[in-house]
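Entry type: protein chain
Record version: 2
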Amino acid sequence: MSSESRLYTFSQETQEKLRKFRLGTSRAKDPQAVVYQIDKNTLEIAQAGDETYTDMQELADELPDHSPRYVLLSYPLTLPSGRLSVPYVLLYYLPVTCNSESRMLYAGAKELMRNTAEVGRVIELSEPEELESIEGKLGGES
């Protein structure tokens, strides 16, 4: 058992939500995103509210200015070959203005979140505006 999995926890309900979101979004026609946060007192990783975002601008508006978050994103896009792809990724939102305690808290749980959510890759964001160009990052552009 890794040290992260002893330090940070997921409730059974959260694990079930993660699984349902992953399985339920693979055939979605629109982007879908859910936000997760870490409770600083219990170190439990849980969904921040019950909202599932389909609009990237709305999601950007909801991300806090000074606190990190994990965002699970399923984003349908058409590849240059014409084939439909639905990348399932973890957006690791780490604003430059957050304090070092929060940075360490979220950095320590990033791989555990990645593995528990079973995402394909992690994309780091430092400001909400970066969501506007997320399609390029998902399609392989930098």
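Comment: Residues 33 and 53 are 5 Å apart (CA to CA).
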